[in-house]
Fold:
Amino acid sequence: MAVIEKEFTHSQQKIFLQYLLVKLEIQLKFLAIQKKLNNCVNGNNDGPVIQSQSVGTIVTFGYGNRKDYDSFLHYLQLFEVKSVVDVRLNPRAWSRKWYGDSIAKFCELHNIEYSSQLALGNTSGSKHWIPPEDQDVKNSLLDVAEMLKKGSVLLLCAEMDSERCHRTEVAEKLQSLTQSPIEHLR
Structure:
């Protein structure tokens, strides 16, 4: 009977060690995910992990050469957008209608928050996003993540085609922080 007890104890130890190894693997995976989130926001391993319980969708929209707000308003209503975030480095356009202050007034009329996030602008002049200042980007992304807790957020830029615009990268960074779905509009 003592031999059976020793084998059983050895089996228990083996199972316990396997359990510990699995638990350690899970913790290592969690730490790797945490590091990725930090790198996404900070560009390094410093700072807290950003967690957001978002309830909204990240919607991206470029006004292109549109002369009116018709499609813009349609999308705002369709996606029940609570906040419009202007991600242009300079919120101006060929038409005064698409200046930041004009969009802010339009949004106010429709009970939608407007925010110009210059730090999410693009200094590269191409679709590849090079933000003006890394620390400001982190703060802006945190602000937008908070907005997503209230509902859908529309990222606004000039380029109509999302595949040719930096707002796609901004949306992806935001998604990695909030796990919100992304919807690119034309």
